[in-house]
Amino acid sequence: MPIDYKIDPARRRVVAIAHGTLTDADVFDYQRAVWSRADVAGFDEIVDMRAVKIVELPRPGGERLRELAATSASMDAQASSRFAIVAPDDLAFGLGRMYATYRDGDARSTKEVRVFRTMEEAVAWLDEGKAGR
Hints:
Blueprint: E1 3-8, E2 13-23, H1 24-35, E3 44-56, H2 63-74, E4 81-86, H3 90-104, E5 111-116, H4 119-131
Parallel strand pairs: 2-3, 3-4, 4-5
Antiparallel strand pairs: 1-2
Helix pairs in contact: 1-2, 2-3
């Protein structure tokens, strides 16, 4: 799977690193593998897209992103959390923003999603959220 992840229980955070060619199937597999686990409920999340070389889109229009956002929102814990996407590439950044819009529009979602160009900005935002909770 071109998404490796680690769970940091001390920081209550899942850190995922995508690399190589990323497909929608990879993202759905990651979503199900990680967020179906009870031990990460309510954790923050960061997905690092800096090592992605190719994003394979099965079809234009964003319908798979909408489906992913709905699937993700349906798996959210009751507690609020934050999800940062690090995407310096314009395509990945734009897709991240579309996903965030779909996710924010789903009433079941308890995660606040933001997209960043740098890891430093993303980590600072996640850490800021921890201070406020």
